[in-house]
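YM 10:42: MHD domain-containing protein sequence, as discussed on the call
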Amino acid sequence: MSGGGCSIRAIWILTPNDAVAFSRRFAVVEKRWRVAWEAEGVGKGAEMPLPADYEVAAAFANRRRREGTARGSGIRTNLSSVGLDSWVDDPITRHIISLQIDKEEGGGFMLWPVVLQKRGSYYVLVLPLVDPQSFKAFESLLKRPDCGSSAKENGNLSSILLNLPCITGAFMVANVIGDIITGDVAEPEVIVSSGPSVGGLLDSLTGSIGITARSKPSAAPVAAPVASVSSPVGAAQSDSLKGGIRPFDKELLRSFIIGAMPFGTPQDLNYGNVSSIRTTGYSADPLPTDQKQPAWKPYLYKGRQRTLFSSLETINAALYDRDDVPDFLSVSGQLTCRAELEGLPDVSLPLTGLKTARVEVSSFHHCVQASEPTGNKQSLLFQPPLGNFVLMHYQAPCNIDPPVKGFYQLSMVSENEGAFLFKLRLMEGYKSPFLMEFCMVTMPFPRRRVASYDGNPSVGTVSMTEHLIEWRIVSSGRGLSGRSIEATFSGTVRFHPRTTQRVNSSFRSATTTAFAEDSDCEQDITKNGANLDDYLMEKMNKDLQAVDLEEPLSWQAYNYAKVSFKIVGGTLSGLIIDPRSVTIYPSVKAPVEYSMQSPEIIRHVEVQP
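YM 10:58: structure's back
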């Protein structure tokens, strides 16, 4: 049974209040579970049926109470006891858990392996079908007296799980269900250009640069008004789910499960494919006898034919402005495609500029057959799947100077006041068609609360929040192209006085402190009257070396500023495609459109000394 793929016995979705918000059981798989135990000569399978929803909720709440958090510790501590997942002394038990089901009439049994994934405010539990031998092997681990396990040990948990491919399938099921309940099911974006083509692929660059701080600025501050940012807090959307939990579409999830995993066996977990099949159905046109339909294209497209490409590059840089420390520049990019083509055509896409780009790492979609690079070119041949997909990922060094260069100085005037100076130069050496659409500098202060700032930048606007100051040099709609500018910003930042609060000693135990990412852990800390921020602050500052008043903000978390920008009109790596050489076989009249992608999320790099 362990080699027969993946089948799911049941799925539960629980709220933080330990209530079952959704459940789905598969009777066909449950029958196979009972038959497998009967083949072993015992009827134990009938004694371990799928529990009711209230029994699962009670078992999950009991596990949370006994393990300390919903995920548990994953290691054996002085609070562990025989029968707990932490007794196995393996961190994987934080993600593959067991539930002890107690019956009112006495007795009880164990559910294992239950794949646990937290998405948003919900806990997704997936119970796959495993063979009795693996189940018994895990039961013995819960009772063994010694702790720890060797990688070469046959009876350890890892060796058991490696023989269970259903674990991987269960994680995939939990992941896609989590995407649905959180609304994170969007495809990679491919934007169709509304303007005329310029005869080539327009690429979008999204970058972030870390600039380390230098001491002793020499500019005098100028008074400026203080900006503040606030956002309203939304009310709870459902009376049935209290505490502001965002409800999800149960009918949408139910229909997806029916289409993606009929009778409990996952067939296609791609949300876009399942939704399209449910909406349009399968293609009625028979395939040619000499063609085989690939798994990534479960039905054939019908309609207006076209092919869309979009390129996105992200530059990650660290500018130290020091002779003894070299700057760091790298480019990572992706090529996204949407091919609306009838039948099963082959698309050939040539890449040029490989030597110029000096591509270090590249990976392709599983539908792509990539030729060996010859000289400065490489060809990609693929049968495109349905919808948007990432055709290629790559990483390369940056072959030109970054679009933003300069330095950042920072020092303290007093215990609660610091002086800073920025001097930046934008788009130096960049000519048309390169266009900077957006540029923003962020000064983070994660361990101090910003009270106000003074200073006027030479260009742009400034705003602040509790833990950072943002300087928008170039705003959306006011791009910078064909020229370079110098931007300076000097001033002072004032902080609220430091406050110390004694933290309850009970929070110093390993079982609580090691898992602060669990929301239930944070709730427990708050309920016991301690301030979580102060507690975490104490933990972070515990191992930091002491510094004098001269440079306290330039130590570790304060020694950098972040520059985020967006550029369109070209690539920094030099990797391009030749649009006139894109071919489709069998030949069809399908225009190839090129566009630039404009994502909303911009990645940042944090620079450490």
